[in-house]
Specification:
Two copies of one chain form a homodimer. The first copy, chain A, has four helices and ten strands. The first copy, chain A, is an alpha+beta fold. Chain A has a single domain, classed as Alpha-Beta Complex (Aldehyde Oxidoreductase, domain 3), CATH 3.90.1170.40. In chain A, helix 2 packs antiparallel against helix 3. The first copy, chain A, is globular. At the A-B interface, helix 1, strand 2 and helix 3 of A face helix 1, strand 2 and helix 3 of B.
Chain lengths: 157, 157
């Protein structure tokens, strides 16, 4: 797979991201893996569903890679995000960032996950033991009860 | 491989560490991978050699995992460090830490690599283009020209 920023319905192997950023100039690779957690504030999750506007989401993942390069320099980044139904412990997202020195790799990888949650159009539907809920934005500040925004509504933002 | 903290002469697959820490309670896994960089301050490295007192090193890696558990709680950690001859871009160390939330995973993983460089008896011999040098401690504050400390000298510390 040649893409460095991609959405997929298939399980993600962390190596798919890591191998794309390992290089002679780098001494450090930081990888962040987001997995499906069973309990959140005592509530049990049975499984999750992720939906995304795929071309838009992939474009914004690539933009995050560019932001990282501008901020830290001499970086290489790969990000994969899964969509569809995910079971407990499944991997939802993998970020890998390589840099010459470790401090930058940690900081840039942390930046990437925060930005993903801020600006990438991906929605999570929680299937709790006692009901379901669309999580509005990924920082979980807005909840949608019934549906996610339409692509048109997104464009109006 | 059942060990969660190990030294090895074989290539390390990051998944060997990641799979050991993924669990229902965790929503985040941070992985740090240290790779062999070609240039350091303009000097070209041809290859590296790592030596370690293996049983002592593995014991101290496990101790670092315990320190992380004490500091952050609800963590799971796996660490593998390679020894022997490593080529440019080869993986020297893999750390994986899982926690319920991402902030702790980043912090604990960063802590682990700093502690490894402070307290684990592993020595690196740089094979530069223009000579060789044993790097004394991994934070590179002390250099040994000819040899690494004997196991007895270590015990005297």
């Amino acid at each position: 797979m040649a893409k460095k920023y991609w959405m997929t319905e298939e399980p993600i192997d962390p190596n798919d991201c890591i191998e794309k950023v390992v290089r002679n100039e780098a001494g450090a690779v930081n990888t962040f893996i987001g997995t499906v957690r069973e309990f959140t504030n005592g509530k049990r999750t049975l499984f999750l569903e992720y939906q995304a506007y795929v071309p838009m989401a992939e474009k914004i993942l690539a933009q995050i890679g560019e932001e990282i390069q501008e901020k830290w320099g001499n970086t290489d980044t790969a990000i994969a995000h899964r969509i569809g139904r995910l079971e407990i412990t499944d991997t939802a997202v993998v970020i890998a960032v390589s840099t010459p020195h470790r401090k930058d790799a940690f900081e840039a990888s942390r930046y990437a996950i925060e930005r993903i949650k801020e600006i990438v159009p991906i929605w999570k539907k929680e299937h709790w033991e006692d009901g379901t809920q669309w999580i509005g934005d990924q920082k979980e500040k807005t909840a949608y009860d019934d549906r996610i925004p339409s692509e048109e509504e997104m464009r109006d933002d």
